[in-house]
Amino acid sequence: MSGWTDAHCHLQEQFLSGDEAATDAIRSTLERARDGGVDRVVVVGTDAATSREAVALSVAPSPIEVYAVVGLHPHEATSDLAPVAALARERHPRVVGIGETGLDYFYEHSPRSAQRRAFADQIGLAHELDLALVIHARDAFDDLVDVLGSEGVPPRTVIHCFTGGPDDARRCLDLGCDISIAGVVTFKNAELLREAVRLVPLERLHVETDSPFLAPVPHRGRANEPALVRVVGEFVAALRGEDPDEVRERTRANTARLFNL
User: Fold this and answer.
1) CATH code assigned at 168
2) How far apart are CA 103 and CA 142, in angstroms?
3) Distance, CA of 118 to CA of 254 (rounded, Å)
């Protein structure tokens, strides 16, 4: 049987130096993922530099499959999108999505107007290149729905690291979006999120680490990594009363469909 897929990680965030030690650390991380039952990861950019690194990782020798997503995070919404768009337009076969983009009104590191503009531009890029759209959404569901409504939801779109409740989940599903679950679901104060996870159709569900952030319980407090996506997936399976093997296989297939792998 195939292994787990980490549908969203930032493996490059810890290793941007690109020196030999960083290369060795990345390989060790991917080997631990393989040894932990993971055979595919999607590495996601948040700006031009991390997007280039994601592409570089996708073509480097690796013990597991690595794919890249390129984009501007809402925190970086005032940055120039042009280098990211140029990277996406190179049509590299391992570049499978645009993102992570979206809206973050919790931290609001970029003005809301800039976030909405950058989000709309990246939705347009996903439409233009027929790539998946990877969305970050925090405390901004009303505006998120508004922008998606005005720009049109790409046919392959996912809300990554979903942290909303059941009503937010239904709104996203009604828009045609998939939902990806990270280690937050294991946190003590995440009961509304757990309610939401129970109602997401299995064919619309993904699991991820968002590493190096948000390590799941009982690993909370340490750096997260793709090997721990199995912890997330097995927790989700128990929460939904489903067989972990079925959740593994179905989420793997869902991510393959989403990113057209």
Assistant:
1) 3.20.20.140
2) 10
3) 27
